[in-house]
Amino acid sequence: MLAIFKRETKSYFTSMIGYVVIAVILAFIGLYYSANCLIYGTSDFSIILYSTTLVMLFVLPALSMRSFADERRNKTDQLLLTSPVTIPEIVWGKYLAQLVVFAVPMAVACVMPLILTFFGTVSLTSAYATLFAYFLLGASCIAVGTFISVLTENQIIAYLATFGVLLVAYLMESVQSLFTSGNTLAFIVFCIVLAVAAVLIGLVCKSVTIGSGVFCGGAVILILLFQLRPAWLLSAFNRALDALALFNPFETFVGGMFSLSTVVYYLSVIGLFLFLTGQALERRRWN
Amino acid sequence: MIEVSHLTKRYGSHVAVDDISFTVDDGCIYGLLGPNGAGKSTTMNVITGYLSPTSGTVTINGHDIQEEPQAAKACIGYLPELPPLYTDMTVREYLNFVAELKGVKKKAARAADVAKASERAGLQEMQTRLIRNLSKGYRQRVGVAAALLGNPDIIILDEPTVGLDPAQMIEIRSLIHDLGKNHTVILSSHILSEVQTVCDRVLIISGGKLAAQGTPEELAARLAAKGVISATAQGNKDAVLKAAGGVPGLTDIRVTAEKGDEVSFTASSTEGTDLRAALSAALAAAGCPVLSLSSQNLSLEDVFLQLTESDHTADAEAEEQPVDGQMSEPQTATALNTDASEPSSEPEAPGEETAPDEKEGD
CA angle, B215 as apex, B229 and B217 as ends, to 5°? Predict the structure, then answer.
C-alpha cells in the first residue's frame, strides 16, 4: 500500500493537476479571507469555508478523475492487480494520496485564523473544528469521485459524472424543499424506485417471477402504508433525500456546533464509497 | 509448478478459453503458441490473477490463485502484452516502485534488485530517462526488468518480442534462455521460430482449446510421420488421380495446379514410408510421365498451421459444399479434413484420419 501511496502522491506533483487543485482551492479561500476577514474585519473564519464549498464541486473531481480511469486506459491496473497486494490496499493507497494533495491547502488555511488573532479575539476552536469538517466533506467528495473513476476508463466522463453527482448533492437541500407536503408524490416516487429495483433484481437473477414477485410484494407494503400511515412515507422520503445531501451536515459546524453525527456521516460516506470502489475493481475481473 | 485444470473463461456468450488443462513443471521454458485471438493472453491473465476464471482452477506452487491470491501472485513475475508502464516516471523510479510493490521492503535490497534486473534487461544507461521518451523496444525491456524484480520462481511473458528489432529479439531470446536456467518461464508467441528455438515444451492453443502439447521435436515428429509428396505428371487429370490413388498408403491427394496437360498434386503418405518410387511407377504404368517428384518434410510451422487452421477450413468447407469435391482451393490444402466426396480417396482413409484426430483431442 505504501508503494502505491508514494507513487500516486508523487505523480500528482509531477503532473500539473496537483498544483492546479491546490492553487484553485487556496485562491478562493484566500479571496474570501481577504475580503471578509482582512478588509471587512469579521472574525468568523467558518463563514469563509462555508462560502467556498462550491469550489469543491469543480476542483475535487479533477483530482479523483484520473485515479482509476487512467490506470485502466493505460493498462497499468494489470501491474497492480497481478502484484501481491490486496484490492483494499490499492484503493486506500490511491485514496490517501488524493487526501494528501487536498490536505496541502487545508494546512495553509490553518494559518489564516492564527493571523486573525493579532487583530482581535477569534474562536480558534470553532475555526479549526469547521476546517476539520471541511476536510471531511472534501474527503467524502473525493471518495465519491474515486468510485466514479473506477467505473469508466475515460477521465473526462469521470470528471463530468462526479461533478454532476456532487451538484445534485449540493442542490439537494433546495430539491428537498419542494417535497415538504404531498404524500401522494412520495408514494409515486417510491413506486418508481420499487419498479426500477424490481427490474434490476429480475435482470440480475434472470427470472421474471422473482422480479414481479419483488414488485408485487413491495407494492402491497407501499399501498398499505399509504392507506394507513401516509405521513411515514413522506418522512421516509425526506430522510432518504437528507442522506443524499452531502453538503448539509457541514452547516452544523459552520453554525458553531461540533456535531458527532456529522463526523460519523462523512466517515460512513467515505467507507461506503471506498468499499464500492473495491467491489467494482473486483467485479471487473469477472467479466 | 503451475497446475491449470479445466480452465474456462467466458466473456458474456463468447468462450475465450474452453476447458484447458495442463501442468507446467519447474525449470522449463514453456511456449504458448497460437494465432491471434486463440486465448493465449486470456489464459495468462487468469494464471496471473488479473482475471477470474469462469470455472476451473489454477494452482501456483500449491497456492490456489482464487483462494490465496497474495501467496500465488508473489511467485509470479508477469509481463503483459502491453507493458504496464507509468510513463511519467523514470526507469529507476518505476523499477523501484515495482520492487516495493512486490514486497522488497529494504531500501538496499531494493536498489540491488533493481540494479540486477536492469543489467539483465540491458537498461543500465537508461536509468534516469523518462519512460515516456523511451522507444518501444526499451519500454519492452523495462517491462521485462519489472517482471524479474522480487526474484519470482515463475516468469510469464506475453509476446515478449513483439515490436522489437531483430537484434533486440535475439537479445531477449538469449535472456529468456538464461532465465530458464533458474526460473520457470512461460512465454506466448505467434512466431514459430521463436518458440522452436527458445522453448523446451510447446502448448498449442487454438480457438480457446489446447490443440497439442509436447517438445517442439515431438510435435514436428507427430505429423512429420505423415510425409507429403508433391508431384507433377503429364496427362489427363482423372487418369493421374486414379493412378496416384491406386498406390497403397497414399492418401489425401489434392490437385494444386493444372496447366495444359500437366497436373500438379500433393499427397500424404503415412508411417514415414517413402512412396515416391511406388508413385512414380504407378504413374508410368498409367501412361502419365512424371515431370517432377519431391517429398516435403513438415516443420513445426506446418504442424501449427494444420492444428490451428482446422477450424477455419472446416467452416470454409461447410460453406463451399456445392463445389463438389474440387480440391484446388488453396484453403483446403490442410491434411486434416479429407472428405468422402474426394473421388480418388482410398478405402484406408478413415484409418488414417484417426491419427491427427487423437492429437487434436489431447
Answer: 30
Select from A56, A54, A55, A77 the least CA-distant residue to A67: A77
> Residue B332: pLDDT band by 50, 70, 90 thresholds?
very low
- How is A25-93 classified by DSSP, letter by letter? HHHHHHHHIIIIIIII----SHHHHHHTHHHHHHHHHHHHHHHHHHHHHTTTHHHHHTSS--HHHHHHH
Q: Is A3 on the interface with B (CB under 8 A)?
A: yes
Q: A76-103, pLDDT tens digit by residue?
A: 999 999 999 999 999 999 999 999 999 9
Q: Are B255 and B265 in contact (CB under 8 A)?
A: yes
pLDDT at B359 over 70: no
How does pLDDT run across B102-145, given as a tens digit for each residue? 988 888 999 999 999 999 888 888 899 999 999 888 898 899 99
Q: Between residues 289 and 328 of chain B, which touch chain A (CB distance below 8 Å)? A: none
Q: What residue ranges do the domains of chain B occupy?
A: 2-221, 223-360
Q: Which of B45, B51, B98 sits opposite A79 (nearest CB)?
A: B98
* CATH of the domain spanning B223-360, picked from 3.30.70.1150, 3.40.50.1470, 1.20.1560.10, 3.60.20.10: 3.30.70.1150
Give me chain B's average pLDDT, please: 79
**ipTM of the complex, rounded to two decimals:** 0.84
CB contact under 8 A, A83 and B73: yes
Contact A206/B at CB under 8 A: no
Cβ pair A79:B84 closer than 8 A: yes
Chain A residue closest in CA terms to B44: A82
Low-confidence stretches of chain A (pLDDT < 50) are none
Q: Where does chain A show beta strands of DSSP type E?
A: none
Degrees, nearest 5: CA angle A20-A26-A29: 140
Q: Which of B50, B110, B144 is the mutation pick for testing A, counting most A CBs within 10 A? A: B50
Task: Say whether A2 and B100 touch across the interface (CB within 8 A).
Answer: yes
Q: Which residue of B has its CA nearest to A86?
A: B70
Q: Which of residues 14-53 of A touch B (CB under 8 A)?
A: 14-15
> What CATH number matches the domain at B2-221, 2.60.40.10, 3.20.20.450, 3.40.50.300, 3.40.50.720?
3.40.50.300
Q: Which three cell numbers stand for residue A129?
A: 473544528
